[in-house]
């Protein structure tokens, strides 16, 4: 699944091509995504100017003159900028055609993504209103994590992957951040010290920032808006390396299932 760095990479790639452009038409070859594409969208979009391209968690937000498009890439989705004359392939479900002759094409083999529309305050939309702070924002700190974790017994990896605690820390980056901070993924959040939470918040910021610079992580099929893969996979310290030696101490890394997700850690470096 595209995680925050992949979505942010996509946002940055799309912005120069979409900002201040006028939408000509919408072509929906397949409307049955995670939620059906609104039937009125074909009439609502033509003539609208895209004024801003933002991200909230893993959602892309295309602000237009009279509303906002909410786009989620789901498990396998991608967005690309192409000439409008480019032939569609099997899983190219939606084209947003621009007046300048290009199009924003949504491809999603598994159809778990979504394209929705709102004319209300987008931050009050049901998909966004309960989201936690952005991990790269100033409000996301070790003190914040420490204060909201008191009295809880949730494993720390599950805790930081909860979108109501902090958005966009998916499985790959949770594994990597906990390794960098030296924290065992199963440790109860209420037992973690303030100093360790400061290390963890800093690790999350550094891991995500590095991943964005590398264009995200391509494990199977992620490509950015230009069709290029992400290269952070080459920098992974623990994720996908179960039973291989730790890069720091050479201890064999352990792999378990935690919250139904693959979790890899070093029994010596993480306590």
Explain this structure to me?
The structure is a single chain. With 271 residues, this protein is an alpha+beta fold. It folds into two domains: 4-124, Alpha-Beta Barrel (N-terminal domain of MutM-like DNA repair proteins); 142-265, Helicase, Ruva Protein, domain 3 (Orthogonal Bundle). The chain is 23% helix and 22% strand. The chain has six helices and ten strands. The protein has helices at 4-18, 41-44, 142-149, 156-160, 171-181, 194-213; strands at residues 23-28, 50-56, 59-64, 67-72, 78-83, 92-98, 102-107, 114-118, 254-258, 261-265. The strands form three sheets. It has a four-stranded antiparallel beta sheet with strand order 1-6-7-5. It has a four-stranded antiparallel beta sheet with strand order 2-3-4-8, with helices on one face. A hairpin with a 3-residue loop joins strand 6 (92-98) and strand 7. Helix 3 (142-149) packs across helix 6. The longest helix is centred in the last third of the chain and has 20 residues, at 194-213. It is elongated and about 60 Å long. It starts with a helix and ends in a 6-residue tail after the last strand. Mean pLDDT is 92; it is low at 217-225.
């Amino acid at each position: 699944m595209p995680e925050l760095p992949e979505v942010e990479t996509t946002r940055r790639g799309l912005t120069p091509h979409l900002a201040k452009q006028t939408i000509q038409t919408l072509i929906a070859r397949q409307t049955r995504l995670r939620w059906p594409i609104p039937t009125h969208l074909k009439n609502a979009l033509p003539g609208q100017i895209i004024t801003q391209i933002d991200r909230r968690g893993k959602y892309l937000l295309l602000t237009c003159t009279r509303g906002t498009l909410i786009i989620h890439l789901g498990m396998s989705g991608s967005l690309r900028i192409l000439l409008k004359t480019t032939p569609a392939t099997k899983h190219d479900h939606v084209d947003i055609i621009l007046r300048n002759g290009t199009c924003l094409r949504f491809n999603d083999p598994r159809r778990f993504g979504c394209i929705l529309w709102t004319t209300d305050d987008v931050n009050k939309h049901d998909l966004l209103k309960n989201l936690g702070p952005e991990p790269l924002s100033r409000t996301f700190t070790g003190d914040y994590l420490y204060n909201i974790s008191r009295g809880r017994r949730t494993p720390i990896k599950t805790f930081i992957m909860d979108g109501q605690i902090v958005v966009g820390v998916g499985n790959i980056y949770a594994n990597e951040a906990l390794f960098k901070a030296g924290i065992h993924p199963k440790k109860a959040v209420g037992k973690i010290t303030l100093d360790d939470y400061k290390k963890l918040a800093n690790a999350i910021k550094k891991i995500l920032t590095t991943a964005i610079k590398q264009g995200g992580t391509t494990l199977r099929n992620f490509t950015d808006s230009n069709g290029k893969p992400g290269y952070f996979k080459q920098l992974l310290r623990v994720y996908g390396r179960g039973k291989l030696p730790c890069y720091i101490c050479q201890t064999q890394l352990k792999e378990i299932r935690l919250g139904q997700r693959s979790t890899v850690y070093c029994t010596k470096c993480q306590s």
